[in-house]
Amino acid sequence: MENVHILTQRISARGEFLPFSAEHYRNNEPAAIHRLIEKLQTTLNIEELLTIYAEHAKQLINFSGLQFQSSLGVAQIADSDNSQPPYSFNLDINNEHLGQLIYFCQYPLTGNIEQKLVGLHCALVYPLRNALMYSRVLKLATKDTLTGLNNRSQFDTILTQKLERFRRHHRPFSLMFLDLDNFKQVNDSYGHKIGDDVLQEFADVLYSSIRGTDSVFRFGGDEFAVLIDDPDFTTNKVIAQRVMQLVAQSNLMKQYAVTTSIGFTLANSKDCENEIFARADKGLYKAKASGRNCAKAY
């Protein structure tokens, strides 16, 4: 088989290597940007937008990584190599700051290349703003506004997905219910501001107690749930003990005499949503009936 060589050209006084197709791109720049805009309008996923944009931008600049940082977090292209020096650009539209687009390049950018990229960003900012707005709406629809945890609607969706995956791929899981002992008295005696502080503290406890493969939810009030990717009661007991220990160590929880009761159950392949829900709820009822501040399986 003949060797295949990628032709490159060095641009004078820039120190960067560009694909040989860059000259072709310059000769067809308006049409190329029009095609880019059309492609960017096909998705509201931020990572997909970056991927589409990166494929186009690499006709102008040889970068190893591309990242976008915004109030929603960090997004980047797949296999982004961020070990090279970063070059950041603020992305703004109508006085609204979207975030920073960061290129990771081995070679420094000249003013000419920076100008080209700034012009290219004009094609990206409107689709990117739409994607950010869409992501924020999804977050509002699936997150509890006080604690930042997944909400009940998201729980119903993920539970259905896990049951289906269990039936199809034999991937078992367990369900844990938790509520706060003495929480009503805190609200009645000290007001809802203190109650909100307690709920936020407990949300932090749950985040600290679960693994990356687990999901935690707030149903409303002082009711919480955890979906655990593990078929063993031992894992549930470990997580429950960790939660209760952190609650006991919390100065805020101790100040208002708040503890937690926990019930959990293992899923089986014949479960429907109501059946596994009812068993976990019975486990929580057993914990309450056993004096609270404990965990019970059902």
TrEMBL record:
Q: Which InterPro entries match?
A: DGC-Regulatory_Protein, GGDEF_dom, Nucleotide_cyclase, Rev_trsase/Diguanyl_cyclase
Locate the GGDEF domain: which residues? 171-298
The organism encoding this protein is: Pseudoalteromonas arctica
Q: Name its co-factor(s).
A: Mg(2+)
Instruction: Report a single Gene Ontology molecular function.
Output: catalytic activity
Pfam families for this protein: GGDEF
Protein name stated in the entry: GGDEF domain-containing protein
